[in-house]
Specification:
Adenine-n6-DNA-methyltransferase TaqI, Chain A, domain 2; 11 helices; alpha+beta
């Protein structure tokens, strides 16, 4: 039996709650135990649920502002700067005035379904934005937004299908982050603390391994100080002609700069049939302008634009290279203020950055040890791409009623 869909205004199925900002001139309004979110907290945020933002406020701060507490499972919709960031409160939170939070009545709608509904209809929602400095949607506009909803059991069934895909995506992301954290910890132990295994499998420095002075401090006796260009091959990007860009898959994958980056691998894909500079699969990618120093890895052979450089080891130690660049990310980011308009770093400056270079046997040993972890990250990332494509295909069809739950 087909579900019956009926049109509702948001205000018929939920309360719409605004936010506010305690005075920043009163220090004791901040630093408390109340989670307080701003749109910035949802910038590049990929999970559905969020428990807290960058700052907390105190009870006094809450009382002396127009912000209000909203309950767990409230849908947090940014209403300005920009419109359209979306998350679900994992616990009680409050927000600044950049949100119109939607507290769904559980007797009338499933909050997960409403979350996916808003996600699917975001362009429609954004079309109501007004303002001269930046677009904004008012509480009145949100309350009067109209959507078709099926009966509550059908809403829940649809939400469960979509949530199961997102649950798996988020689990894979969590595993990937844990695997990378483990590898970074191991890199620090080997190449910063110098506790790599000696010939007896014991930690080198704490087992009495011989050290020597260098311009970068004490280092193991067989290690040397050099520059990045002494240890790696550097390749700076060059953007292809603008009329060769496309989103249809014609030509080689093209990454322009930092805005393309996701976790580990670029997530935004353009294509070009006129590649100028190419990074090979698994080479490390570094943003070299606006901003400098963000690190990613090439998932495929790809064209790199002028916002990127690629770094590779002459003997193809891809994992070692990636974690080495992560280890000096702070130094790389210090060049973000070098440009006149925005930060940038050129090939010569990048190549001349001083670094400690270990013997090949040590860097190769690390690469072999973490290669399996990186392989898992690669596989989970590919799986997530497939799950995301499936979710994004199902979402508009399920939310509109074009596809029945029974047909899946």
């Amino acid at each position: 039996m087909m579900a019956i869909w009926k049109e509702y205004k948001i205000e018929e199925i939920a309360d719409v709650v605004g936010g506010g900002t305690p005075s920043t001139k009163v220090p004791h309004f901040y630093g408390g135990n109340i989670p307080w979110l701003t749109p910035k907290d949802l910038t590049n945020y990929t999970n559905r649920h969020i428990a807290n933002g960058e700052r907390n406020i105190t009870i006094e701060g809450l009382s002396n502002s127009s912000s209000r507490m909203v309950p767990k499972n409230t849908i947090l919709l940014t209403s300005r700067a920009p419109i359209g960031y979306l998350a679900i409160a994992a616990n009680e939170v409050c927000t600044n005035q950049g949100f119109k939070s939607i507290v769904v009545n559980p007797e009338k709608a499933d909050y997960n379904f409403v979350y996916y509904l808003l996600k699917a209809k975001m362009e429609y929602i954004k079309s109501y934005g007004t303002g001269t400095t930046f677009a904004e949607i008012s509480a009145s506009v949100v309350k009067n937004l109209k959507f078709n909803l099926p009966d509550l059991p059908t809403q829940t069934a649809i939400a469960e299908i979509l949530s199961s895909l997102d649950d798996k995506i988020e689990l894979n992301n969590k595993i990937n982050q844990e695997l990378e954290n483990l590898a970074q910890t191991l890199f620090k132990r080997w190449f910063i603390d110098f506790e790599f295994p000696n010939e007896n499998g014991e930690p080198y420095k704490s087992s009495g391994g011989e050290m020597k002075d260098s311009e970068l401090g004490e280092i193991p006796k067989d290690w040397v100080v050099g520059t990045l260009k002494d240890e790696f091959n550097l390749n700076m990007g060059q953007s292809p002609k603008g009329d060769t860009y496309n989103e249809t898959g014609d030509g080689m994958i093209f990454f322009q700069g930092r805005s393309d980056f996701g976790f580990r691998y670029p997530s935004v894909r353009m294509y070009t049939n006129d590649p100028k500079k190419v990074a090979k699969k698994f080479e490390t990618l570094i943003s070299v302008r606006a901003p400098v120093g963000d690190i990613n890895m090439a998932e495929h052979d790809c064209c790199i634009g002028r916002g990127l450089g690629s770094i590779s080891h002459p003997r193809k130690l891809f994992s070692y290279t990636y974690y080495k660049m992560l280890s000096i990310q702070g130094e790389l980011k210090s060049y973000d203020n070098e440009g006149t308009v925005f930060g940038s770093i050129n090939k010569e400056t990048l190549g001349n950055i001083k670094t400690i270079i270990p013997p090949f046997s040590t860097s190769n040993g690390f690469d072999e040890l973490v290669k399996e972890k990186d392989s898992l990250i690669y596989n989970f990332t590919n799986q997530n791409q497939q799950l995301t494509q499936l979710r994004d295909t199902l979402l508009p069809k399920l939310i509109s009623g074009e596809l029945e739950v029974s047909e899946i």
